[in-house]
Please model this.
Amino acid sequence: MISDIEIAQKNKMEPIVSIANTVGLCESDLDLYGQYKAKISMKKLRELHNDFKNNKKGKLILVTACTPTPAGEGKSTVSIGLGDGLSKIGKKTIIALREPSLGPCFGVKGGACGGGYAQIVPMEDINLHFTGDIHGISIANNMIAAIIDNSLQQGNPLNIDSRTISWKRCVDINDRALRNINIGLGGKVNGVPREDHFCISVASEIMAIVCLSRSIAELKNRIDNIIIGKSFDGRSVKFAEFNCTGAIAALLKDAIRPNLVQTLEKTPAFVHGGPFANIAHGCNSVNATISALACSDYVVTEAGFAADLGAEKFFDIKCRVAGLNPSAVVLVATIRALKMHGGVLKNNLSEENLNALEKGFENLSVHIENIKKYNLPIVVAINRFESDSEAEIKLVEKLCANLNCSVVLAESWGKGGEGSKELAQKVVELCESSKSEFKYLYPDELPLKEKIETIAKEIYRAKNVDFSSTALKKLAQFTEEGFGNLPVCIAKTQNSISHDPKLVCAPKDYTFPVRDVQLYSGAGFVVVLSGDIMTMPGLPKQPAALNIDVDDDGVISGLF
Model:
């Protein structure tokens, strides 16, 4: 079987200027990164924001999924195929996705540009470094850390209690050895000794800030508002007090601008921002989404992992911040994944098993019910595999019908846009016949503790929420300091609707633990840590890096 990277490498790309022209962008609107990648200029970005404000906006389609399994769900593949399918039926369409992190590319699963004949290209560039956005974000983050430690070294004029510093360094690889470190060792000239920590770059607050900022002025304001720790008298110290915000913004002046690439079928794609959904808010940048909406009639975007994580954060954080009003939701599932939720082992997934499929459908039904809480029309896309039997397909169609939910087969992987035309037509039908009455799950004024309880009970199906004393104390402090109206961003496992990866399928009536909370005052949300979630992942026993190589001509192999 031909691999994804081989399919991508056989494809002949169009110059990115030609792709831009199809959605009304000209060469002067772009900064070119070679022939096939470009960034939107700052001037054009401002114009597109004005177009969006003046109601020149397309319909926004969110693609989300059932709870992931080792069998795979194919959310990105369906997203890209749907974009190509909409283009094939004559709709002016742009796809808006996150850019991949090097962590998973070399760690758990390889590349992140779709698969088969539904891919964005150049996939090697997009997966590896791309236009340098994530590196810029990492350097900006670590510059803040260096400034903090330099201030401690130079007499500590802000009277910072180094034991309270919450700002972490970051790097965009999975390196568990950096989770907890000691710095400043080796004598007086090497800094003030203290305990420090690393997170992966895509979980950093700077990544979230870049993804949620619409302009450099907003970027600076958010950086100013970052709280890095407390003084010895208990006062929260903001980064603005270091008088160095301009330098950090200068490092991010290009990273804030969306990147334009293309699919195999030449549909334009804005690929920008990469926050993890199990740790951060899991959506591509506001700038990319708004630019796409201002340039097209339909925008296909996705949110990371399953609907309990990515979709909830997309709705309650990103849409709230950016004033977005989604028109419809596509919920991706595979029959293989549903059978796995029903207890079938991975090696037996090719065998027909209606009983396990019906049991595993409970996972999908929870996500369907959750999406309906946001008052949005929804269609289930069955990402079809060759092993899916007609009886299994018919059973999923019947079970979806029982929930009054549309369902369509998607064959994006094998047929690209042609295999996604039926899904595209259903999406158009939903957008034209069903008026979106989108609403958030909770209001701004709801107390932080109750916001967390609402998500845990309404989305995760928990019966109770158990807050640690540390978490309760911090939530009270955040509220007292004026942050009670912020949304919450729950960091938990992606492998279960609950906090516990061992609770499979559709767990309910359990206790959801909140062990700690962190204030991302610059990004504008409160991070809630549950279970054993880590903000710095580790490499698996057999990392994807073992499969990757490059030859003397610079041609990469093994990247998915």
Summary: The chain is about 35% helix and 20% strand. The chain has a mean pLDDT of 95. Residues 379 and 426 are 8 Å apart (CA to CA).
